[in-house]
């Protein structure tokens, strides 16, 4: 499996913090719910580990979540959707998991259904990465 099958990655010229704010704005504009933002660098630093900046932003489309859960409740293992903002080698990247991967594990979800959700994720990542 190629990384592009699993993730949509956009490199941005924005600072790390600007990219995080841009993701939050893109999520709001798309009408999705924001669940939680995890600061992995901060959480691991509290345990004595050093990491580069990484935030995991959990988001949800209630309509899609309900639709998928009605097909198989184990799909909840892949929920909520996530968009990460990471800093690697001085570059800021915005990364969204492609929901079409769900249809490979759960045949009850058609690729077409997952593509609808994936379009939203890709648009949010792309919009957040723009200057």
From TrEMBL:
Residues 39-99 form the DUF302 domain. InterPro entries: DUF302 (IPR005180), TT1751-like_sf (IPR035923), UCP021774 (IPR016796). It holds the Pfam family DUF302. PANTHER family: SLR5037 PROTEIN. This is DUF302 domain-containing protein. It comes from Candidatus Iainarchaeum sp.
């Amino acid at each position: 499996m190629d990384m592009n099958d699993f993730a949509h990655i956009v490199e941005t010229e924005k600072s790390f913090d600007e990219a995080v704010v841009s993701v939050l704005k893109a999520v709001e504009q798309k009408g999705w719910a924001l669940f939680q933002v995890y600061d992995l660098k901060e959480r691991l630093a509290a345990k004595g580990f050093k990491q580069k900046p990484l935030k995991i932003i959990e988001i949800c489309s209630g309509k899609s979540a309900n639709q998928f859960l009605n097909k198989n409740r184990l799909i909840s293992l892949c929920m909520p959707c996530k968009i990460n903002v990471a800093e690697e080698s001085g570059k800021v990247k915005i990364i969204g998991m492609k929901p079409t991967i769900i249809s490979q594990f759960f045949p009850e979800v058609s690729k077409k259904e997952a593509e609808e959700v994936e379009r939203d994720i890709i648009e949010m990542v792309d919009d957040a990465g723009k200057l």
